[in-house]
Amino acid sequence: MAHPMFHYDEKFGEVIFDYCRERLSLDPVPLDFGSAVDVADGVLRGLISEAGTPAEEVLDVFRTHLAPAVVSIDSPGFLAFIPNAPTKNSLLFDMVVACSGLNGTSWLESSGVVVAENQALDFLAGAAGLPEGSGGAFVSGGSLGNLSALTVARDVGRARLGSATARVRVAISEDAHSSIGKALHILDVEPFPVPTDDHRFTRGALEEALAADPHPETVVGVAATAGTTNAGIVDDLEGLGAYCRDHDLWFHVDGAYGGAAMLSRSHGHLFEGLRHADSFIVDPHKWLFAPLDCCALLYRNPTVARTVLAQQAGYLDVLHETGDEDYDWNPSDFGIHLSRRARGLPFWFSLCTNGVEAYRSAIQRGIDLAAWTAERIESSDHLELVRPAGLSVVLFRRRGWDGARYTTWGQELLKRQIAFVTPTKWEGETVARLAFLHPDTTEELVTEILDSTRD
Ligand SMILES: Cc1ncc(COP(=O)(O)O)c(C=O)c1O
Question: Considering the entire predicted model, what is its pTM?
Answer without folding.
Answer: 0.97
